[in-house]
Design goal:
The protein is α+β, with helices and mostly antiparallel strands and 221 residues long. Among the domains are: 91 residues, Ribosomal protein S16 (S16 Ribosomal Protein, Chain: A, 2-Layer Sandwich), CATH 3.30.1320; 58 residues. The protein is 68% helix and 15% strand. It has a 5-stranded mixed sheet with strand order 4-3-2-1-5. Helix 1 packs across helix 3 and helix 3 runs antiparallel to helix 4. The longest helix has 64 residues.
Length: 221
């Protein structure tokens, strides 16, 4: 019976995840399978992949053929590498210690690569979050400024014109008062002069009266 290592779809619409299974090539894609070998979830970043390496290698040794997607996943997890190393062990080119050493070294390098990628993604997320907070702060400040401006009382255009006219009126009235005062000043001076004239003539009248009095007394004698 030909066996395929392939993906079996699960999950809801728009967010699928997959099982990695060994199944009869004649079975339906989402039908019965012989063994579940792992999971593949592309909805996370990076994608979540879990594979039973030893069982997957056993199926490959028994002649199972992976699909293109399943092959890429198995290669990413080192299944194909271990299958290749075990082939060298069967031929006597490698010992079991060498196989384990090479495979563990490859795993360590792979884990460091994945860890650096995850840290880079975390940094990108932090930067994006900082930019989002800065943008949100700017928007809030702008809204606060607009709200403060809207809270100030607005003066209609007509009232502004009246205020300006009122502000200008006292100055115009002051100018008119000064001009009237300047025009009336000569009249006031003339009136004051007329009032002073009788006061100046009073001593002369009194003197004439005194002189006339002795003359009249002499005539009576």
């Amino acid at each position: 019976m030909p066996v395929k290592i392939r993906l079996q779809r699960h999950g809801k619409k728009g967010k699928p995840f997959y099982w990695i299974v060994a199944a009869d090539s004649r079975a339906k894609r989402d039908g019965k399978f012989l063994e579940k070998l792992g999971i593949y979830n592309p909805n996370t970043n990076p994608a979540t992949i879990e594979v039973n390496v030893d069982n997957s290698v056993q199926w490959l040794q028994n002649g199972a053929q992976p699909t293109d997607t399943a092959r890429a996943i198995l290669s990413y997890k080192g299944v194909l590498l271990k299958h290749h190393l075990l082939g060298g062990l069967r031929k006597g080119a490698l010992t079991e210690e060498q196989v384990e050493e090479k495979f563990n070294a490859w795993l360590a390098e792979k884990e460091s690569t994945v860890a650096s990628k995850v840290s880079g993604l975390d940094k990108v997320k932090e930067d994006a979050k900082a930019k989002a907070l800065a943008a949100e702060k700017e928007v809030n400040e702008k809204r606060a400024a607009e709200a403060a401006a809207a809270a100030l009382p607005e003066t209609p255009e007509g009232e502004e014109a009246e205020v300006e006219a009122t502000a200008e009126t006292p100055a115009a009235e002051a100018v008119e008062i000064v001009e009237e005062t300047a025009a009336e000043a000569p009249k006031v001076e003339e009136k004051v002069a007329e009032e002073k004239a009788p006061a100046a003539e009073a001593p002369a009248v009194e003197k004439a009266t005194e002189e006339a009095a002795p003359a009249a007394s002499k005539e009576k004698e």
